[in-house]
Amino acid sequence: MRSPGQPKDKVQLIWAGALILMGVAVFFRIPQVMPRLVEMGHSATTVGFIRICFYVIGFLLVGGGLKKVMRHFKSNENETVHSSKK
Fold first, then answer.
1. Residue 71: inside a domain
2. Domain containing 67: what range?
3. DSSP states of the chain as a string?
4. 86 vs 18, more confident
5. Domain count, the chain
6. What is the C-alpha to C-alpha distance for residues 27 and 42, in angstroms, rounded to an integer?
7. pLDDT for the residue 38
8. pTM for this prediction
9. Which pLDDT does position 58 carry in this prediction?
10. What pLDDT is attached to residue 41?
């Protein structure tokens, strides 16, 4: 079994934080980008589709980051439980 303090675990936790931050950044960026698309002359259907795609990307980024964080802390919790039973 791996020890909880290995560098790979820290890198994965940092990566999870980056995913969450980028997902949140996408949510804040959407209202700024959508008026520009309308100004370029895109149809309402196209703008709506792009908006949905941006929100899906944001949810996937945040969800993936949260999944990594939960997996990290759950594995550390399981390792401490197993090590205390020995």
1. yes
2. 10-81
3. ---TT-HHHHHHHHHHHHHHHHHHHHHHHHHHHHHHHHHTT--HHHHHHHHHHHHHHHHHHHHHHHHHHHHHHHHHHHHHHHHHH-
4. 18
5. 1
6. 21
7. 87
8. 0.77
9. 97
10. 87
